[in-house]
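Researcher: I'd like a structural prediction for the single chain below. Treat it as a standalone chain; there are no partners to consider.
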Amino acid sequence: MASKRTAMIFKRCMSSVPGGKPLPVRKPLPYRRVTVLGAAGGIGQPLSMLLKLNPLVSKLSLYDIAGTPGVATDLSHINTRTEVHGFAGDDQLKDALKDADLVIIPAGVPRKPGMTRDELFDINAGIVKKLVQAIAKHCPFALINMISNPVNSTVPIAAEVLKVEGTYDHTRLFGVTTLDVVRARTFYAKAKNLPIEDVDVPVVGGHAGKTILPLFSQATPQVPLSKEEVEELTRKTQDGGTEVVQAKAGKGSATLSMAYAAALFAESCLKAMNGEPNIIECAYVGSSVTDYPFFASKVELGKHGMVKALELGPISKYEQTCLDEMKDELMGSIDKGVAYVHNTESEKIIESLK
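Model: Treating it as a single chain, here is the predicted structure.
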């Protein structure tokens, strides 16, 4: 069960440290290169540390506009098998991406108190576009794990950029929504006094506000929830990011929990690449599960990315209502991301003709 793998991540990571309990490895682990773009930031640094502790990561390339050589040197002193290198500045981006199997993108600015989604979009859209263009050029077959917000728009941006570059494959592009799943599991387990390691809650839709839809009707173990409990747990899951921003009083966002969730999803991608079967996670992907061109649902991961997006299955009347109500917001975010790429490409053509 995915939730049990979640609860054991640190035990598995630390078992790779010399002096700890040896991993029960029957054959050498495949050589896997992972690149983190935005590695010096609030999510990037703890994420990079978790990846350094993961025995599935052979080489870890850390990139940011500045600060990454120091982060890499710091992490390189940790006695695990993962080789770490730091890269900084535009001229080193191609070296950071060379031969990457998996690229994780937490780059960009976090949401701050009072910041509108439009303001966040305006800043991060350009960053994401530039980085994805580099991925298309230097490691076109890598899996991409998109963390940069707003994910509902940045994944469509990435898809359109890859289409322009001629390298788009919807099975290799993922919006990381694992934090929504982590929160839903945590809140559900606490509300019903359940052992957290036994809990799983699929979360579908998108990765912002009311587009986040935890399916408590499909939670395991299944325990009775009142209408009021379902609504409260749904609201709490949807507002998890806002709660952290407010609790940090303007001095940060959900960086640590996001890093943890991103490390979980990255680990699942690596396990699937290595041939482990039946790896199921929730992610925001291009799919035909619904009428939305991009939608978060359960997906099966394989050696080359997504094998398939799984159907929603039976949902409650309340969940269906929430699904219907997210339409305008989710489609608006998707359309905005697509339009951004085409507008900027048009501007580039016009500028070249002057």
